[in-house]
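B., you asked whether I could sanity-check this one before it goes into the benchmark set. Here's the sequence:
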Amino acid sequence: MGSTPQPSASSGGLAPNIAALLGYLIWIVAVVWLVLEPYNKDRFIRFHAFQAIGMVVAVIAISIVCTILSIILAFVPYVGPILALLLWPVVWLGILATWIFLMYKAYSNEMWKLPVIGDFAAKQAG
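And here's what the prediction gave me:
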């Protein structure tokens, strides 16, 4: 029988990929990883924590833009309200797909970077 690999001592008992996954799953945990030792010493966990927080900020910004766009579209006769109603599901499906993809990459021990947020996260992680 094969033995299961032990979690890294630098990760405080959690395997780094599980800790990074949890940072995406519950974004408050990402903030905790940046504060709590020994998680804040692991570059992999720090990268994914910063990227998860950046993703939350991006989602908030996207929501604000979509709200403004929906208000503007509401004034366009006939097709405006329909487009406004279609906008939200498309945007949220894209966000959900991106979030699941990032969780998969973290679980797979990959440091996959989002275009802008990933560069910032990599710089902050060190």
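One thing to flag: Residues 12-121 form one domain. Otherwise nothing jumped out at me.
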